[in-house]
Amino acid sequence: MATSPRAFVLRHTRLRLVPGLEEIRLHLADAVLPLWHAVQIETADPDAPLPFWAFAWAGGLAIGRYLREHPEAVAGRRVFDLASGSGLCAIAAMHAGASVVTGADIDRFAAAATALNARANGRRVAFARRDVLDEEVPDVDVVLAGDCWYEGQLAERVLPWLKRARAQGIDVLVGDPGRRYLPTEELSELASFEVRTTTELEDLDHKQGRVYALRQSG
Ligand SMILES: C[S@@+](CC[C@H](N)C(=O)[O-])C[C@H]1O[C@@H](n2cnc3c(N)ncnc32)[C@H](O)[C@@H]1O
Fold this sequence. Notes:
globular; binds S-adenosylmethionine
């Protein structure tokens, strides 16, 4: 890596208001393909993942809207934001009054972006930059999972982990715009929001983002 992840995020994004969640500012990119190419060069990895961290995804936007309307879901509680990306859900939880929020993502740029974004919003977010899906569920009150159901192999690992969290009495909130691997039979819909996204990422620039609670099994 030629530069630090922090410097890379700063160079390739602009700090701007999140559509529909104007109380939050994030370092965001305009175009996905040139940035993806820059990541591939920076990491010398032609298979580098998409720069998820440079966008506010529809599932995360829905969770953000839900927490603004229902701060009681997280207020005074310990929150874990799985697959943080930009840290959008983590920061929304802090805005809603969570006592402590920890983000988690496997992408080093997501860790840097979340730190920068938390700071830009005057918030603190702890971070686990590793794959936590093979680990025990942390001791928290709420798990947020924004836009995790876009890929089969990931979905197959996320669902049992979230179910373990639920079995331990943790509230699990899922935000999603109808991705292919969303396990709808395990979920109860709580709310639906029209969220503004971008045709850089989606087929349409507006999506219906839904927020669900994971049901307790058995
Ligand atoms: C579509 S983005 C969603 C980001 C954010 N939650 C939002 O809604 O804007 C999915 C994120 O999942 C992360 N991810 C993929 N596999 C993961 C894993 N095993 N553990 C944690 N995060 C993972 C990716 O790096 C990416 O940042």
